[in-house]
Amino acid sequence: MLSSSTRRTTTSLLRPSALASRSDILLNASNNTNTHQLSQRRTLLGLVHAIDKRVYRWAKGVLPPISKTENIALGSGTIGFDRDIFSGNPSLQHLIDTYQPSITAEEQSFLNNQVTTLCTLLNDHEVVTRKDFSREAWDYMRDEKFFGMKIPKEWGGLGFSTEAVSQVLAKLATQCFDANATVAVPNSLGPGELLVRYGTPEQKEYFLPRLANGTLIPCFGLTGPHSGSDATSLIGSDCVVSKHPETGELGVVASFKKRYITLAPVAGVVGLGLNLTDPEGLLGGSGEEGFTVALLERGHDGLRMGPRHIPLNAAFMNGTVEGEDVWIPMTSILGGQERCGFGWHMFVECLAEGRGVSLPAGSIGAARSVVAGVGAYSRVRKQFRVPIAEFGGIQEAMAKAGSDGLITIAGGDVMNAIVDNHEAPMVISSVMKQNCTERGRRIVECGMDIAAGSAICRGDKNYMGNAYMSLPIAITVEGANIMTRSFQIIGQGLTRCHPHMSDLLKALQLPPSEEKHAVKIFVKQFHKIVGHGVTNFFGSVSRGVGSTFSSAIRSKTAYKNGDDLLAYHEKQLLRLSANFALTGDLCFSLGGRLKFEELLMGRLADALGAIYLGYATLHHYHRRRGIDGLEALTEHAMLRLEREAQEALYAASENFPGPLGPLASTVMKMGCFPLGGLTRPYSDPSDQLTKEVSRLLTTPSEIRDMFQEGIYSAPEGTIHQMTDLINALPICVEADKVATSLRREKREPTAEETNLIAKADALRDALIQVDVFEHATAEEAQPGYVRPALQGTEDRFANLDKTVFREAA
After folding, report:
1. pTM (two decimals)
2. pLDDT tens digits, residue range 76-120?
3. Do 329 and 343 form a contact (C-beta atoms < 8 A)?
4. Phi and psi at residue 248, in whole multiples of 5°?
5. 3 by DSSP, 3-state: which?
6. Ordered DSSP codes for 318-365
7. Which residues of 644-674 are buried (b: 16+ CB within 10 A; e: fewer)?
8. Residue positions annotated with a catalytic role
9. How far is CA 4 from CA 14, 18, 274, 759, 783, in A?
10. Average per-residue pLDDT for the chain
11. Which residues, including other chains, have CB under 8 Å from residue 497's CB and lie 6 or more apart?
């Protein structure tokens, strides 16, 4: 029972006036709480925004300002499979479904007929000795439109695909590297392709038919003494917008000094890269300052073309293009006045073909030559009565040349298909240029080591020497490999291909007046980058452990099952892609300092190149599977590529630079190699696999047939060293089998076997010979010529009483 006082209190609290008063109190308390919470939330949000702003301003201060030209470069070209690798999740099936390299019947006919005929007209040794082609060869290239393969048919060209052009260039390289270089330039940076895309109607109508039929041979002038192939500087190639002093016509006055310009000594028209300025504002809003391309014909007032460089021992035309205060009307600006300052867009979007297609085609030709010619030579040539193909050192070099050859061919096939898919992948084209020309050099070096003396004596019988001297040229042109590897590939790749970096960079470039908007974009993309890094970290760990386990239990002969071959190596590439993507995310800890850490970028370029070419090699296997022995060669190539990527990433983790380098190194090692050395499972191919690959490349096989698909074979009855070696191979191999059988069975040969062995011996004796010259120079050929050393000998003997040993005795 409640007491009377309690009942009174309760009754008073239940009165309406009391209830209302209490409700007000509770409401006020609630409002105070909400106000306090809202205030706290606003304070917290303000603090977060302040932190975001500070981080944004710090990042903006750390990142060097991006120039207008660099911005254009970042926005030019396309991204595709390269972005998939940077994301850490590329798909082999997507690559297979999207890119299918092929050529038409018309293109195949051109390869079989016109290209073969041109090769027949070219004697490589004579070309190099004369430092020029014959008039007949020049006329044939013009008449058959070798310089207009990429120009559309509507303008009189052949309208060929990129794959067809690549195959033409590769086949020419198997006979004459100078022909490869000469035909490559008009079909990449001609400037025929630039005219097709950007020329005015009048420029197209005048130039394209003349370029297509060979009336005008083109060249492109970019490189200068102080700028190399760097189109962002163009030092010493200046032009100023002005009016003609007599007619008042608007144009530019240009001074330029170009060098290393291929085809300049014989070109009829040059595309000039110039740095245009407009101090008086004469453009009037039509066009702008910056990299501009002008078209000048030979004979233009003030234009000097003709002097030659001689790159190493090469014969292709290469020289200078110079002029001072040259008047150029606006009608000669490629694309007209409105395209002033637009040259970087033109250059970048067309550069993919020159760097990613034309230069690798030379390496593809070298690979086919080494496998076809040197592979046969290693069976023809005997030492200690044994074909040198049976020696371990030869087998190692031959297998490396073969797997590098497969990698180069596979990379070229995918790159060609990408370009034919109307893409212009700047990062992949840089990877192809750097990686394939370097592999081409290694391939030829292996061939030179195997062929030895026969490869260093010049003459008609030497099909290796000129390629050996030409490949270093390919390595230096269109951006030297040392620069492409240590700066360009990753510098462009991280900014262009990372899934979130491009938008973040754009936010950092916005003016202070747009800071509020910029901070929002920056924070959003920054969070995405962090999330991307975390995802790649855990993906690297899980894939690393899984790949290590699958590698440990895998049989050394598992590659013989094609499905297992594809599944296993795709799994390894996915693991390496996650490792690479994680490392790319960690690179952002360096800020703007990244562009100066070229050792790190070089290692990451090696990893990216190995991953891309690994996918290309699996893509090739998927398309060509069924060729007997392709599994062994693909396995050999993939094991080498996986080890290359692994070692590049490990070296990066051991040497990660910057103030946060130790932390980044630790995170990278934990993500990429979570169990230390156990999670670095990739090693070089076994000796057993190396011997098997070498056997396939040095005996008649379907693998050899695959490499021989794209080489020049001389007509029957023609003396041609590589063709003769290829034809002799099955005879020599069969003769060796007979000889082995005779020794094992201890019997005399039959008449047929005797003839076979004699024929093989005769072929061997003929094919191991090298060229000998009565005189090496035109001076030596002069009547009465005596070599200086012999003159000195005669003079010394003239003062002696006895001039022969018998007199002295």
Report:
1. 0.90
2. 778 899 999 999 999 999 999 999 999 999 999 999 999 999 999
3. no
4. 80, 5
5. coil
6. EEEEEEEEEEEEGGGBTT-GGGTT-HHHHHHHHHHHIIIIIHHHHHHH
7. bbbbbbbbbbeebbbeebeebbebbbebbbb
8. 478
9. 15, 19, 106, 136, 149
10. 89
11. 79, 82, 83, 85, 86, 427
